[in-house]
Automatic annotation (TrEMBL):
The lineage of its organism: Bacteria, Pseudomonadati, Bacteroidota, Flavobacteriia, Flavobacteriales. The keyword Protease applies. Belongs to the peptidase M14 family. Residues 12-318 form the Peptidase M14 domain. It comes from Aquimarina intermedia. This is Zinc carboxypeptidase. One of its GO terms (molecular function) is zinc ion binding. Coiled coil: none annotated. The active site is at E288 (proton donor/acceptor). Keywords: Carboxypeptidase, Hydrolase, Protease. GO terms for biological process: proteolysis. InterPro entries: Peptidase_M14 (IPR000834).
Amino acid sequence: MNITELKNLWIQYQNQTVFGRYLPSQTVAEQLQFLKIPHDVVGYSESETPIHLLKFGVGKRKILMWSQMHGNESTTTKAVFDLVTMLMDASCEVTQSILSNCTLYIIPMLNPDGADAYTRVNANQVDLNRDAQERTQKESLVLRSIIDTVKPDFAFNLHDQRTIFSAGPNNHSAVVSFLSPAGDAERSITKSRVQSMQVISAMNELLQQLIPNQIGRYDDSFNINCIGDTLEHEGIPTILFEAGHYKEDYDREKTRSFIFYALVKGLTAISSNTFTANDHKEYLAIPENEKRFYDIIIREVSLKGQIKDIALQFTEKLSDTTIIFVPKIAAVGDLSNFYGHREIKGAKRAIRHYNDVVEVVPEVEMLKFYLNTELFSV
């Protein structure tokens, strides 16, 4: 499958009814009805919100994927509904190939309570991705039950990552990152890890043609409380997907397309068994993520007589049904080894209202605010 074919799939199947950063649990219910998707309610959240499981295909290879384990990480959920839109078209040759060789089990939203509140944690303030062993939460028990029932050959763990990450120590934002989690403290390269690395290598090869040098690899430090590490410990090839920041794409609609491409490529590689042609060492060559980015850096301003850089990071807050991006000062000093998704030349002017830098301004007005000369003394 080449880039042109994938782009045509994206144009044809992008789900126009799902968009933005805020995707509450109602979105899932609406999509199930809108697309007439066969599904089962496989359990309930701590607040008794239904958790749905979708099933597609009749093939021998079983793939389980889940999204929005963290409620404020919605980009991969959007891509999942793009994928589901494609899977619902029985006339699509790609769909036919995938579903004849694979059976897909999809949980589009594991943490509906967190999604409604736009928080990482669930209604009990528990991070579900640290609850894989104790399984104190209903959502964790639902996922574990599905894993034990399905016994997947591959697991896709779908997440968002913050805007801070670079692909290596360079001025390249990590638009998409992957991880083949370790299954032990020694980070052993086991058979299951090799398989997940091979699939990631196939997806990376594709995405490098679209966003060169903007694919990152997560640190594989072992934590048995994380679901990916638990599954790899059990010998289940697991792939962590992380949707990151593309330039000027705070709604992550562009990143969403790259996740869709990666999902389609990964599934076709597994369904055709062509992922085995990739050397897992290609995965190890993907640059590891580093924290080199801020949302805004104002370069070279005079602060109390000293020339410094000011870095601002957005925090995301839910206001009604809209996500507001609020700037907070994250660092002040020599930030020459860091990069801003937006950089503003301070031209060594003096800050007049230093405290006003943290003024709450909607993200769409952000650039105008910081270019306003009233911020600086004359």
